[in-house]
Design a protein that fits this description.
Strand content: 5-15%
Strand order of the largest sheet: 3-2-1-4-5-6
Number of helices: 9
Length: 238
């Protein structure tokens, strides 16, 4: 019987395993340029963020919802007078997002390779199903994972369900990610360890306070430091 304190590790995908938010930022800058005759850049971004917040419950997370929010914002800012060619351009830059290259974060492959076979590895990501499957395939990381879960949202119930389904429950699991709101706080609430890897461009809607008082909270600078965290937890349980 495996008596280790942790037997399963969940990994977020976007901005944990590979770059993602930087492409959204570049797209937003392009969007600001398209509407530059109607409003200032910061005002355009503020309106877009409001639209994204409103639309999460309808479109969920991902590029398709982001594109629809850009169109809605363009209609609002131009008071319904947005040129047809501008809508066409917005659709084009949305499709460009769906074709962006996959750039893995530092230390990802070497860490997954070292952990593979010693822990049950689970990719837990939210967003558009087709886009997340595309990025996983292009990353070349798929063979390292024992299970892949693409979910509509991440909360404590999500982590309890996944870790009970594929592992021995959240108490013997760890979640690793760059979002405190989606990856760390709900995983700890479910009973798992949460390892936070800050990313400079984390989406503003994913910002919450770090649960620094939680016994199962850890923070590292990059994925290559995960081995030290695992060794420390194992040593403390001996």
């Amino acid at each position: 019987m495996d008596m280790r304190p942790i037997t399963a590790i969940g990994f977020d995908a976007d901005d944990t395993l590979w770059q993602n938010e930087q492409y959204y930022r570049l797209t937003e800058e392009h969007f600001q340029t398209l509407l530059g005759d109607f409003a200032e850049g910061p005002d355009i971004s503020a309106k877009l963020l409001e639209a994204e917040k409103r639309n999460l419950e309808y479109y969920g997370f991902g590029i398709k919802g982001f594109t629809l929010s850009m169109i809605e914002t363009a209609v609002e800012i131009t008071e319904g007078k947005v040129p047809t060619q501008t809508i066409t351009k917005i659709l084009e830059i949305g499709r460009d997002l769906l074709r962006h290259p996959v750039e893995c974060m530092p230390h990802v492959e070497e860490t997954l390779e070292a952990l593979n076979g010693h822990y049950l590895l689970v990719l837990i990501t939210k967003g558009d199903l087709f886009d997340q499957e595309r990025k996983l395939a292009q990353s070349g990381l798929g063979d390292y994972f024992d299970a892949v879960e693409i979910v509509s949202d991440k909360n404590a119930t999500t982590y309890r369900r996944i870790f009970h389904k594929v592992a021995e429950g959240p108490e013997r699991a760890m979640m690793v990610g760059n979002s405190l709101k989606s990856d760390i706080v709900p995983a700890i609430a479910a009973g798992a360890y949460g390892v936070f890897i800050p990313h400079a461009l984390t989406w503003v809607l994913e910002h919450v306070d770090a649960p620094t008082d939680a016994p199962r909270f850890r923070q590292i600078d990059h994925l290559g430091e995960l081995h030290g965290v695992l060794n420390g937890i194992t040593s403390a349980s001996d």
